[in-house]
Structures are given as C-alpha cells and as structure tokens.
Amino acid sequence: xxxxxxxxxxxxxxxxxxxxxxxxxxxxxxxxxxxxxxxxxxxxxxxxxxxxxxxxxxxxxxxxxxxxxxxxxxxxxxxxxxxxxxxxxxxxxxxxxxxxxxxxxxxxxxxxxxxxxxxxxxxxxxxxxxxxxxxxxxxxxxxxxxxxxxxxxxxxxxxxxxxxxxxxxxxxxxxxxxxxxxxxxxxxxxxxxxxxxxxxxxxxxxxxxxxx
Length: 212
Hints:
By secondary structure, the protein is mainly alpha-helical. It is 79% helix and 0% strand. It is built from 10 helices and no strands. 35% of the residues are buried.
C-alpha cells in the first residue's frame, strides 16, 4: 500500500520540481485515508503521519498539506491514545507543534489548539495531571499569541474549561483557579459566542467565588 507513496516522497526529497509530485502525493494519500477513522492499526496510522511530515518538511507552506496533516493527527490521536505509551503520543504532538511553529501557519496553529483540547480530555482519562497542566499552559500561550483568531480562542476556552474541571476533581485548587481566571479573560474579552456549557461555567464561578 505504501510503496507508491515512498517513491513519490523520495523523488520529492531529491528534486526542486515539486508541484506535480505534491499533487500526486496528495491524491494518493487522500485515497488511503478516506476511511482512516475506521483504521485501528497504529502502525498504519504512524506510517501515514510520517509520510505527511516528510513531505511537509519539503514544502512547508502548502496549505492542502497543512490541512491534511492537521486532520490526520486530530482524527487519529484518540485511536493511538489507547494503543501507544503516553510518551509516544506526546512525541506526535511535539512534532506537530514544531511544524506549526516553523511555518507560523494559521491552519496548523488552529489544528494545534484543537489537538491540545482533545489531549486534555484523553490525558485526563489516565489522570495525567502534569500533562494537562502543560497542555493548558500552552493553550494560554496560544491565546495570547493569536488574540484575533476565533478558532484558536475557542479551542483555548474549551481546553481551559476542561482542565479546570479536571484539576478541581484532583483537589488541585490552585492550578484550577489559575486556569479558571485565564478562561474568564478569554470569555469576557475575546469571544462573543458561547463555547462552553453555561451551567457548568456558573458552577465553576460559584466554587471560586466561595473560596477566593
């Protein structure tokens, strides 16, 4: 299944005549991943991600490729999460972040926000508080760096909301309070629409106003 992709990627890495090869790569890999959400084989998923990363290293500004990369990582991480060690999951996220930082692409930045939101939920299933603190802090940084990007702000609000709830359940009120305050700032100054559960948000407000 991957022989043709490998040939295209090798050719891309060796030539400056990239346009037709990139189009061919996108066409072939898109056919393969049409049903990727139904694929449970982690090796297949990891191979596809690696192919996309190799091509993206050659043509980092290609928006179609950026979108494909974002979609495949976002859609398959929940599948990989139940099969791979947490360190390997974090390596995939770290690679994605590196591409987003290198290209300063709005597309990759928006996907990074959504990936971090999902990762906060996934890592909460393992009670991995350190990673949740890390991801929530990164969302705060994204919010500050991209104050006018509605998709980034929405992701940040959702992620901080989930992180706050998790940390409260873990009895870490200090961290929960800090993330809640950042969530308040985003909701009050940067978002005009409702993006988190209003009833749950009211409960959080009551919790922190009670004790602060």
